[in-house]
Amino acid sequence: MDYQIVQTPFALPPEYFYSLSLIVGAVVNWVLAAMLFFDPDNFLYTETPRYYRSRYLTALSLMVFGIGFFLHWWFMPRFYNPIAASALSLGYFHIGGTLFSMSHTGLIDRHYLNLKVVVRDVVILLLSVIVYAVSALLQSHTLLYIGFGLFFLHIGFLTCKFYQSFHRIYLQLGNYANYFVNDTDRDVRWLFFSCHLIILFGIGGIAVTLLFPNDTVPFTILMFVGVGIFGYIYKALDGFSALAYDSEVNLQKSEEYLHTERGSREMAIFKKKRLQISWLTDIPMLSGFVKQW
What we know:
Elements: H1 14-37, H2 49-75, H3 82-108, H4 115-138, H5 141-179, H6 184-187, H7 189-211, H8 217-239, H9 244-258, H10 261-277, H11 284-287
Helix pairs in contact: 1-2, 1-8, 2-3, 2-8, 3-4, 3-5, 3-7, 4-5, 5-7, 5-9, 5-10, 7-8
């Protein structure tokens, strides 16, 4: 009697799932980018220019990640040229992360994204990408590690700038909500949570690249987790459209209120009360995960 051997998913090699995760990640990111680029309602968002800009910058970032995942899938450099694979990851994570920073920090902070910031980030990106490319061409571990250093320094700096803005604006909106009742500081919490995920995925992805340059399993897990994260990023930003106008108005008015004598005095009291409620609420990274939201 002949028995037919049925191959289960668990019998497939890890490389199969690695390849699948890459192409799925690429397609998902391209689809999400297209949904932002070609949304028929985009013309409605011209009333809120910063949100309008954020949609396109996020779409560009998603497109960059999708291209990076596709190049990994097409050439599979991790199997025969780990240095080139790591350099490629550094390139699109760095470009995509910087675009996310421009998009989301610029959306939270009305004064963040200006010509000086754009020139600074573009210059650092160009220098970094040159280092990544040369490290791959020369097969230089030294240049590659310099590239890792450039990435962590720049993205770490952008992360700090985001959380500084996040912390300041959150307190500003909360203080204003005590003066003029509104829920802006609470309604945008899922957008802030999206930013937490962007930062964790970006820094975590390059940390995995540094620690496991020749292993596919960590990258496979990272990629499948990333699909959910990118989907959430899209959902959070697209859902923010319903709040973008009110948020813009409240951001401006809360800033004006803060500069008044009463607003400045109330801010000091507001900060003290928050510290008395829980010291966790005054830590930007954790404030999105406690009840005070």
